[in-house]
Structures are given as structure tokens and as C-alpha cells.
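Page 42, continued from yesterday. The earlier attempt failed because a stray header line got pasted into the input along with the sequence. Redoing it now with the clean sequence only.
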Amino acid sequence: MDKSKEEKSGIEKAGEDLFKFAADRDDLKLIMSLLPEGADIKRETVEYELQILKFISTGWSITYFLDNSPHKDQLAELYWETFCQYSLNISEATDLMTGQKIDYFQIVKERLEMYIEAMKARPETPEPAIIMGQEFAQTCGNVDDVFTVMAGSRMFKSTVGSVKEYFEKIQML
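This time it went through. C-alpha cells are written below.
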């Protein structure tokens, strides 16, 4: 009994850590700083979409890396439940500040489905970050802009790498 309680608290800690990582904006700021000043980029859109991509990439990484783990479903559920609560707060704050009703959770869910469908449509692509960067740029309205594509690819790749490193550190892989 004590062992399962310890495991559960470890899974809960992992869920909390992963959500905190996904919500952290330091890497987002770094990626934004790499965008050239003179580039024809909608910076607000790119920044907004980068945060969404980070949330999605973190959740996707949980199921990808823990595919054969008995902890996969529980950890994914904890992560997405925490995100759901967070998105309710974002939606309410947006409504209060702008008078616009948005469903942030639904927005992220639709983006997740879009990214997954894009990866399914191109299984021959050796690196998912290529697909993610292109889809990201399309979502930002800058499909032909190499800097926007690279920003999306960087966010995906660095997020996935960080989640993998975290799982290795806590010995879940």
C-alpha cells in the first residue's frame, strides 16, 4: 500500500512539474528574441501560438515517451486536467478584460488535433519537428516565412527534448 501511495505522489509531482514547465515562458521569450526585427511576422500571433504549441508538445510527449508505461494514462490525465483548470482561468480573464468569450481549452484541443492529423498525413517525414514547424507557420498565417517555420520547429524540438530529459532524470524511461 505504501509503495502505490509513493508512486502516486511521484506521478502527481511529475504532472505538476510538466505543467509548470509547459506554462513557463522563458524558452518562448528566447525563441521570440531570435526572430529578426525586420521580418514580416505577426509577433503577437507567433508568441500566442508558441505557447499553445508548448502546451501541446508537452502533452504529446507524455503519451509518446510513456507509450508502454503503466503511468502513461494517469500522468497524461493529470497534465491535461491541470491544463483544463488553467485554460478556464485564461478564458475567464480574457472575458473580463476584453469582453470576448473564448474557450482556450477548445482552441488548444483543436490545434492538437490539427498537429496530430498533420503528422499522420506525413508518416514518412523523418523528423516531426519539420511538420510541426510548417503547421505552426500556417496557423500563424506565415506559411512561407522560414523564421516562423523555424520558431515552431524549435519550440517543438526543445519541448520534446526537455520532457524526455525530465523523464530520464526521474527514471521513467
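Notes: The mean pLDDT is 93.
Reminder to self: strip header lines before submitting.
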